[in-house]
Write a structure and sequence with these properties.
alpha/beta; 7 strands; binds adenosine-5'-triphosphate; 264 residues; binds magnesium ion
């Protein structure tokens, strides 16, 4: 397994570009390989929490970390196993954290990082809200070793990556809290592989030009099974027609966590 915890935030400035889908996809794939996965849901809409079928007792969610100063080791206390796979432990999200975004949080950026200390996880995935530059994403970036951007193959997604990267550049320049944060890749999802339109192809070409070596392959194909799985709150890997998406995510897992892949 891994010597120390690897924490990765999935980020984009555009909504609906696969942050949550890739978070739960990587969680399922890593857990399948025997990795102890933590998911921290920093999106006030808590979609990853719902999808992973976890329900927090009142008040026992990520807000107990982000809204308080006494948080050492809190992730381990708050996390609940997902019925998907007991290897996946989830710090549930909650609508209650929406208010924190605008509040002045003195020293608050460090809370999530402190809370992860001592959690018995090999990989921690942080699902972030699409609002960049605010308190929630800063707490996520401060707690992370790496950030992975997600996008769909279109102009909006491309701009979403550009803004998210601009925010990370600004964070690295202005915040002393995590100067070593690594940009680990740009993942393109909902790729129309059966009929790759000219627009989609042009968007990927432009993404590659903009992001100098960061775009990861394969592109994750668009499949209706992902939406069906989301509606049913299950993993699309359980559906035959979700298999191309699961295969692409497995290949991206090999690239993002090469040491784990070797031991798989
Ligand atoms: N490979 C795919 N094939 C088909 N549908 C997909 C795929 N990936 C994501 N989707 C669908 O696209 C929608 C947006 O995805 P998702 O919720 O993961 O994006 P997000 O970036 O987390 O959005 P938000 O910013 O709202 O949190 C969802 O309805 C999801 O089911
Ligand atoms: Mg999401």
């Amino acid at each position: 397994m891994i010597a120390r915890m690897d924490t990765v935030t999935l980020a984009s400035e555009k909504g609906g570009v696969g942050k949550t889908t890739l978070t739960v996809g990587f969680a399922a794939e890593l857990a399948r390989r025997g990795v102890r996965v933590g998911v921290v849901d920093v999106d006030p809409r808590a979609t990853a929490t719902t999808w992973l079928d976890v329900e927090a007792p009142a008040g026992e969610h990520v807000g107990a970390i982000l809204g308080s100063d006494d948080v050492a080791g809190a992730a381990a206390d708050l996390a609940l196993p997902s019925p998907w796979n007991p290897q996946i432990h989830v710090v549930p999200g909650s609508r209650d954290i929406a208010g924190l975004e605008s509040a002045q949080q003195e020293y608050g950026d460090l809370r999530l990082k402190r809370a992860l200390d001592g959690w018995d996880r090999d990989v921690v995935l942080i699902d972030s809200p699409n609002r960049q530059g605010g308190f929630l994403i800063r707490a996520a970036l401060t707690a992370s070793d790496r950030v992975v951007y997600t996008t769909t193959p279109d102009e909006d997604g491309r701009a979403g990556v550009e803004w998210a990267r601009w925010n990370v550049a600004r964070y690295r320049q202005l915040s002393p809290l995590n100067p070593n944060l690594v940009e680990a890749g740009v993942i393109v999802t909902r790729w129309p592989d059966t009929i790759p339109t000219i627009d989609a192809r042009n968007a990927v070409t432009a993404l590659e030009e903009d992001n100098d070596g960061l775009v990861l392959h394969p592109l994750v194909p668009e499949r209706v099974a992902v939406r069906s799985a989301r509606a049913a709150e299950v993993w699309w890997g359980d559906y035959d027609r979700g298999e191309p998406v699961a295969t692409a995510i497995a290949s991206l897992t090999d690239q993002l966590w090469p040491n784990i892949a070797k031991e798989a």
